[in-house]
Design a protein that fits this description.
single chain; alpha+beta
């Protein structure tokens, strides 16, 4: 129970610090927004926010620099780097809190030469900064989350794809993790679900309970490359050999090993080291003839040893994996699902379909963008809030409701544009810097990092698409105010 609480506390710290800092930007946006539409944003908020943002970028840059090495990081070391980087991201968002009010102020001040609906929309947003600035800040935060997560997900996917090692040839069905006594029942289940499908198997030396009997094979000047499915030897019959090479005409001799490789090598013999007794006696060595065979898949490079060789020196063998060669039959996802259901917990099935990128992050990005759109609509949607504003719009458009709707579209689009621009300004450095500690290795296998491609088209689509969508919704949902009593000229002066 203590360890569970400790884990929850660590998660709370990791998540809580950046979240509290990020949501603090909404409070700062409220504090920095002047109550009077004619007043300017207090410059100390803008300057203080600028310093806080620079501090956040510095913390993230430090985290990215600390995690830049292509080596293994200890868990505590990695946690410290990640926490500093996340805190920097939260501090960056906190510092951008006053910039929503400041941006609205600039829009309202320099909107004189814009068309009437745009000018009035900018002034309306700037005149209600106590209400609009927090909503635009929420749009900024959620857009930054969507942009940063997109950058990180693309980089992590590229890194994961580079580190991916297949477990079989593409399309192969593997059935494994079963006990020796269940081997026959598993094979029967496969034959019932996939009638007529040829099944081969890889084998391992059987060991009595509590004993280990060494068996190894060495070929001179031959080393299986990294990422091989079978890094050492593999044991089986001629059907397994032809699965490994991908060539049904590969010659087979039950007394000779086969060095399966893509390299141009010549091998005549291999040496076997073994201990049949399991009594920790010195290993016995035996040399057997060997040939070289090429494979269609470089991940299948290994040394194949016929099971008959092991039996001749005193070993008993048992099935390790049951295999359906994709050259003879491809297994569909539905067939695999039915086979899984038939086998239950007796064994596991796996079909090698290559690297499958995760798509769960797209749901989070979509939710973040929906929240960003909601924030923009909260700031710029709804009815024309002041009757005088509504009357000016109607008189400028000769009583047409289209002018009011154009105003609503401009107001929603401007609020969304302010939020998405600020969000992209925050989200790009967060994603580009956070990706380094995110892809740092904490396992024993430290793989070189690949080049991270930034998804600029997707980011541009967010920054452009959100304001356009918000403008369309704003135009559709804007409601008119009833009542009109002032002239357009006098009302325009009031605005």
């Amino acid at each position: 129970m203590i360890f569970e609480l400790g884990g929850l506390l660590i998660i709370a710290v990791f998540v809580g610090i950046p979240v509290v800092l990020a949501f603090g930007s909404v409070a700062v946006a409220v504090l920095s927004a002047p109550r009077n539409r004619h007043l300017r944003v207090r410059r100390r908020y803008v300057v203080g926010g600028l310093f806080a943002s620079f501090g956040g970028v510095y913390m993230m840059a430090f985290g990215a620099w600390a995690a830049r090495e292509e080596s293994r990081y200890g868990t505590i070391e990695w946690a410290g780097i990640m926490l500093a980087t996340l805190a920097g991201a939260g501090l960056l968002l906190l510092g951008l809190g006053p910039f929503a009010s400041w941006l609205l102020e600039i829009l309202g001040r320099y909107a004189e030469r814009l068309p009437l609906p745009v000018r009035l929309a900018a002034r309306d947003l700037a005149g209600r900064r106590v209400a609009t600035a927090p909503a635009i800040t929420m749009t900024m935060m959620t857009t930054a989350l969507g942009v940063a997560l997109t950058i990180i997900a693309v980089g992590v996917t590229a890194q994961s794809e580079a580190a991916y090692s297949p477990l079989a040839r593409p399309g192969t069905l593997l059935v494994g993790h079963f006990s020796a006594e269940h081997a026959d029942s598993v094979r029967t289940a496969i034959q019932r679900e996939l009638p007529g499908v040829p099944i081969t198997q890889s084998e391992v030396p059987s060991h009595p309970a509590g004993e280990f009997r060494h068996f190894g094979v060495v070929a001179e000047n031959v080393e299986p490359p990294d990422g091989s499915v079978y890094p050492n030897e593999v044991i089986g019959d001629e059907t397994l050999l032809r699965y490994l090479t991908g060539d049904q005409s590969t010659p087979y001799d039950e007394g000779a090993a086969v060095v399966i490789t893509t390299a141009d090598v010549k091998v005549d013999t291999v040496k076997i080291h073994y201990d049949v007794t399991g009594n920790d006696d010195p290993l016995t060595s035996k040399t057997i003839p060997a040939i070289v065979a090429r494979t269609v898949d470089p991940h299948m490079q290994t040394i194949f040893v016929p099971a008959e060789v092991l039996r001749n020196i005193g070993y008993q063998t048992e099935p390790d994996e049951l295999i359906v060669d994709p050259s003879l039959r491809r297994i569909s996802a539905d067939e695999q699902e039915r086979l899984d259901s038939r086998l239950g917990d007796v064994s596991d099935t796996y079909v090698e379909r290559g690297f499958q990128p995760s798509t769960g992050w797209q749901v989070v990005v979509a939710a973040a963008l929906l929240a960003a759109l909601s924030g923009a609509m909260a700031a710029g949607g709804g009815k024309a809030t002041r009757p005088r504003l509504d009357r000016v719009l109607r008189r400028a458009g000769d009583g047409s409701a289209a002018t009011v709707r154009w105003f609503g579209a401009c107001r929603a689009g401007l609020s969304a544009a302010c939020g998405t621009v600020l969000g992209a300004v925050a989200g790009c450095p967060i994603g580009l810097l956070l990706i380094w500690p995110w892809t740092a290795s904490t396992s024993w296998d430290s793989l070189p990092r690949v080049s991270f491609e930034t998804p600029w088209p997707a980011i541009a689509a967010m920054v452009v698409g959100l304001p356009v969508l918000a403008a369309a919704l704003g135009g559709l949902l804007t409601r008119e105010q009833a009542g009109c009593g002032l002239s357009a000229k006098s009302t325009a002066k009031g605005l």
